[in-house]
Specification:
heterodimer; A: mainly alpha; 3-stranded antiparallel beta sheet; two-stranded antiparallel ribbon; B: mainly alpha; 3 domains; 2 strands; globular
Chain lengths: 435, 438
């Protein structure tokens, strides 16, 4: 009796490794692991051998050696005597600069185009369709090169601005000059600038005034000045939000909402204005001196071309995302909001947008990421981004391809992973809270 | 009663009135214009703005196109021809740069007397791809499609026909092994041998076989080096190979990322994230600068092949993410139903999961393909002569120095035609599949 209920004891057979689902997954994984380790070993072994034959070693010492090349656009102090590491940081900052400018402009363009694409106006609707399809279906590289070519070959020369009847004029009340060498825009300087540059300027200008010269140089601005201004601005915005929260609490308690906008406006504008005046802010406009424009900020053609092309191109993609997001909110939501008696503006801000944003934000952020990665096309116009400094000139000068490309890849990888991580946090926070 | 009634009712209409036209503002063009263009003050402003933009663009472009010169030898000649019409140098387009350099823009430096080969290859490609794209074509034609890649390769690069034939035979060996060994020793052993045998075949049998057969019957046409291939031909070769190769790889990666097997899952995730996190241009530089470090000393292979491999890997990571989205969007019941039917992993994927998941992911996949095709322009940075590289070269010559709009419009238009037709095809496919589903 007992023998028939006993499960027959199977001895383990080798074929079970393949045919038995209990063991098969382990077999497959072990094989995969062996193949992976083998492949990695093969690659590393080859690399070591090749490096030996070439007589190269694998170290990052070159980052502390002097770079010996110039970077025409820099956000921090840099000379050709600085190290390769600093050149890489200058490049990273330039990449971030064009990425941030591009993301801002692309969002504005994309939102406008996306909303207009939904307009009932046939003409506007189709015009936006032409923009979106035109930019989405033509390579970004072509746009960058085209805008660069237009900027360098079709814009007036600085000398065209000269004379009583110049061929070209500056825009916005003589403050912006568009030339074939780039765009010159006004700059804000601080008379009481904090730091060595400010002190030197004050000494020099007092000397100049005593000597009776008419036009002393425009005052400089330092990073500290801007940090102070931005800090005050941030604190004021925080104060304004506190005021709004107080108004919300009052509304909850009494049903009456105190008017907030004038207090908010004063809270934001007044302290910032006061700090700017205390620092002695002056606007330095570009003007023609010699063969070129002096003063103001010089935006090079490379930056302008890259910035505009990236923004227009990514803007077309963002337009489609915005359109899809708004279409994703069902019409019943609008109707329900109307039935509740909400005004159109409040319907938009309280009902449609929160739901549309849930759909819009994730692909929007991945477009920002694409824009940042696409900024490596800077190579086409000679903009000195991280690929041109660390991944370009530094590699050429030191012959450290392996290390340079590794660092470059790592920079982009860390950036992408960090942004994806942020996006996941956001996605979790806006996920529909169900059950 | 009737009398009082007669007094109160003075008039009763006995016949119908003829139908009247709707008011002029409520019909035809006027109504359409009012509703679509002038329905509110904001719309009026937008309409006027758009009209101004259209006017500005057209008034600049139309004369420029109308006065264009198509037969000049250089930009100088172009300006002269325009001057004879009484126009300034910028009064008309100079499309003669396109007619003059047409062959170069399309074929690069491919030998002139062999132009018929890429053209024939393109026709064969179109014939081969048609049954894949349109289901109304006879299904048997798919077998003919399988031979197209080998024929196209042979026509473009030349050499002996035996190479492609024997390589194709390798796939035949694989299929044969799958059927025969699968019957004899079970499905899994069949699959393994279907992967291993062709590889062994290509490694050890192909070389001597090709040499022997070419000795008997050469079947050879002139060889063309990859360096000579350029222009839109290059963009198409890289783009199409990338598209065809990256789809299966992307699906495998997506399945790997969904897999419960720890190592396979983590390897797929790492591969996908690393590839996607770094711009293509960095990968292309890796292919041209670093690949020699990773391969055994002394290996050196075609730059174009390296680019195709890199572009394929790059696109496959993006496709993997798109397909993963499709897989995740399927209701869990589909997976469970497949299990309940007793299907094994391969069958459940092939018959139930993937057909549905791929259908959902079609728009994303086609978008990735469009991106890939546009990204082929980046090869200019590692020294391949794609259309943009050629346009830079043309602009650097003395004849055409200073020309840019005409070239860029032409190149942009060509890319637009390819990419736009791809996106239209994706919409067509989506609609067709939706109809079938109902």
């Amino acid at each position: 009796m007992s023998a028939s209920t006993d499960v027959p004891k199977e001895s383990f057979r080798l074929s079970q490794l393949i045919y038995d689902t209990r063991y098969r997954s382990i077999t497959i994984q072990v094989i995969a692991l062996v193949l992976l380790i083998g492949a990695l070993w093969w690659l590393i072994n080859n690399t070591v051998q090749n490096l030996e034959t070439l007589g190269k070693d694998f170290d990052f010492g070159f980052l502390t050696q002097p770079a010996g090349y110039d970077i025409n656009q820099r956000l921090i102090e840099y000379t050709s005597q600085s190290t390769h590491g600093r050149a890489a940081i200058v490049g990273i900052l330039n990449t971030m600069l064009v990425a941030i400018l591009g993301c801002a402009l692309a969002t504005v363009l994309g939102v406008i185009a996306g909303v207009l694409r939904l307009s009932k106006n046939w003409l506007v609707n189709n015009l936006m369709a032409v923009y979106v399809e035109g930019f989405r279906n033509v390579p970004l590289l072509l746009w960058i090169i085209l805008i660069f070519a237009v900027m360098t070959e079709s814009m007036p020369r600085p000398s065209d601005f000269r004379g009583d009847e110049p061929e070209a004029t500056m825009f916005l009340g003589d403050s912006v000059a568009v030339t074939n060498r780039g765009v010159y825009i006004p700059r804000i300087g601080f008379e009481n600038s904090i730091g060595p540059a400010g002190a030197t300027w004050r000494e020099e200008s007092t000397a100049a005034i005593e000597a009776g010269e008419e036009e002393p140089a425009e005052p400089p601005s330092s990073l500290v000045d801007w940090l102070i201004v931005l800090g005050v601005l941030g604190a004021s915005i925080y104060g304004a939000r506190w005021n709004t929260r107080r108004a919300n609490a009052a509304q909850e308690a009494t049903g009456e909402r105190p008017t907030t906008w004038h207090v908010n406006l004063a809270l934001i504008v007044l302290p910032t204005l006061a700090v700017m005046i205390a620092l002695g802010a002056t606007v330095a406009q570009p003007y023609l001196r010699g063969f070129n424009f002096a003063e103001g900020i010089h935006l090079r053609n490379s930056l302008i071309a890259l910035w505009l092309a990236l923004s227009l191109y990514t803007g077309a993609f963002i337009a489609e995302i915005v359109r899809a997001g708004i279409l994703a909110v069902s019409k019943g939501q609008t109707e329900a909001a109307n039935a509740l008696g909400l005004r159109p503006g409040r319907t938009m801000s309280l009902v449609i947008l929160p739901q549309a944003l849930r759909v819009i934000i994730p692909p929007l952020i991945s477009q920002y990421l694409n824009l940042t990665k696409n900024s490596s096309l800077a190579i086409a116009v000679g903009y000195m981004d991280v690929r041109s400094t660390l991944g370009g000139i530094t590699i050429n000068q030191t012959g450290k391809e392996l290390e340079g490309m590794l660092l470059l890849g790592l920079f982009y990888l860390v950036l992408s992973l960090a942004i994806s991580a942020l996006m996941n946090v956001y996605n979790n926070s806006v996920k529909l809270k169900e059950r | 009663m009737s009398e009082t009634h007669a007094e109160t009712t003075r008039f009763v209409r006995t016949e119908m009135l003829a139908e009247q036209d709707p008011p002029i503002t409520e019909k035809g063009v006027v109504k359409w214009t009012r509703e679509n263009l002038f329905s509110g003050w904001l719309n009026v402003i937008l309409t006027l703005l758009s009209l101004y933009v259209i006017y500005a663009v057209l008034s600049a472009l139309l004369p420029w196109f109308a006065n264009s010169v198509w037969t000049a030898e250089s930009l100088e000649g172009c300006r002269e021809a325009l001057g004879e019409q009484g126009l300034t140098g910028h009064g008309g387009a100079c499309f003669s740069v396109i007619t003059e350099r047409w062959n170069q823009l399309i074929f690069g430096f491919y030998p002139t007397e062999l132009y018929w080969r890429p053209i024939l290859a393109f026709v064969i490609f179109l014939l081969g791809i048609a049954p894949v794209l349109f289901q109304s074509m006879p299904r048997q034609a798919l077998w003919a499609s399988l031979t197209a890649p080998f024929l196209v390769y042979w026509l473009i690069w030349g050499g002996s026909l035996w190479g492609p034939i024997i390589t194709a035979a390798g796939f035949g060996v694989g299929a044969l092994a799958y059927v025969l060994v699968g019957k004899a020793a079970g499905n899994i052993v069949g699959t393994i041998s279907a992967i291993l045998l062709p590889i062994l075949f290509w490694l050890f049998v192909t070389g001597p076989f090709v040499a022997a057969l070419s000795g008997v019957l050469p079947l050879e046409i002139t060889k063309v080096e990859s360096n000579d291939i350029g222009g839109f031909m290059l963009a198409l070769i890289i783009g199409i190979s990338g598209i065809i190769l990256s789809l299966p790889l992307g699906i495998l990666l997506a399945l790997g990322r969904q897999s419960h097997l720890f190592i396979i899952n983590k390897v797929s995730v790492a591969f996908i994230e690393i590839i996607r996190g770094v711009p293509l241009i960095v990968w292309l530089f890796t292919a041209s600068l670093l690949l020699n470090y990773f391969l055994p000393p002394g290996t050196n292979f075609d730059l174009m092949l390296r680019v195709i491999i890199m572009v394929t890997l790059f696109a496959s990571a993006y496709i993997a993410e798109v397909v993963r989205g499709g897989l995740a969007a399927l209701p869990k019941g589909q997976y469970e139903a497949a299990d309940a039917l007793g299907l094994d992993y391969a069958k459940s994927m092939r018959l139930i999961i993937l057909p549905q998941a791929l259908k959902i992911s079609i728009p994303g996949i086609v978008n990735t393909f469009i991106g890939l095709f546009k990204d082929t322009t980046l090869v200019v940075f590692i020294g391949l002569l794609d259309p943009i590289g050629l346009s830079n070269a043309i602009r650097a010559t003395t004849e055409w120095n200073g020309i840019y709009w005409e070239l860029f419009i032409f190149i942009g238009l060509m890319f637009f035609i390819f990419c736009y037709s791809m996106s239209r095809y994706s919409i067509f496919l989506e609609k067709k599949l939706q109809r079938e589903h109902r």
